[in-house]
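Ticket reopened. Same input as before:
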Amino acid sequence: GKKESPDLDYTAITKLPSIYSNVGAFPPETVKNKMLIDNKKETILFPIYGYMVPFHISTIKNISKSEEYIRVNFNTPSSFTQEQIDAGFAPPQLMYIRELTYKVSDPKALANNLRLIKDLKKKFTTRESEDREKRT
Amino acid sequence: MTSVSNPILQFNNISLGGKVGGKRGILKLTQTGLGWKSEGGKNEAITPSDIRKANWIRVTPRVFQLNILIKGGANIKFDGFREQDYESIRKFVLENYSQTLEQLELSTKGCNWGEVKVNGPMIQFVSNDNKIGFEFPISEVSQSVINQNNKNELTLEFHHDNTLDFDDESIVEMRFFAPTRPVKEDEQKEKKEKEKKEGQE
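Engineering reply: fixed in the latest deploy. New output:
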């Protein structure tokens, strides 16, 4: 059948609503030195140079660890279409984040972050495929 | 009624923003400028004539940042303010440094794409609502590598931050990707002709 995309795909360069209305709407336990998995919003907040940056779980392809490092791979399209460029969605400086690597020295936090992100990814993927089946 | 403003404004538990680690210290705003001193003896001073812009940014639900853009384009960030500190700082900065304290919002889009902009010494990742998602000074990059097999991929490695605590989770590497763009028709024609020529040789 026809391949359908999920309702909100945060890798797609279309006009998407913000996940949070503003930083004040981040989970209250948010701190600037630790990643935070927000299951409600299906979003991970990553600390990048003193700011907390949300990434929707649909942007994440996979996550792995090696020693005390966590590596997050993101979904990226291989090319822009002429339609996307004509519509003004792809200015020349537009880039995708493909990978983030973090040093997490605390082994407990490392294992916990890894598990929570994997669980959320699994849950999201399952729901997505169920939605797709329902539509067909 | 006239109000006389306090000539000194002082805040405790203020750390330098823009990074994860860092000691806390005392920030004093006086008529001659801003001075920050940590317990470890580190300090930072800004004179009023160097201030280009003063911004107020919420960095977490509870913590606010005073972000000072100085001459030359560098940003000096102070973290650890509460929401209610805004009014006193706004007033002080306006009366003593003739600067309007502007409230800036960070991007909360949740996308992994954005415009990468070079703004003085800062590299900024900006979402399509023109809000900054994150930024870092170019001096934080220890190495930048373009993938030899995929020229559209750029890897940035960051300097090790030696101010980190054991439980700080810090970014060590970031990889950007620029999707390819369709080649315009005449360019394609040119390329094909060139390939044809090369094939004949």
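The two ends of chain B are 90 Å apart (CA to CA). The CA atoms of residues 194 and 200 of chain B lie 10 Å apart. Please confirm and we'll close it.
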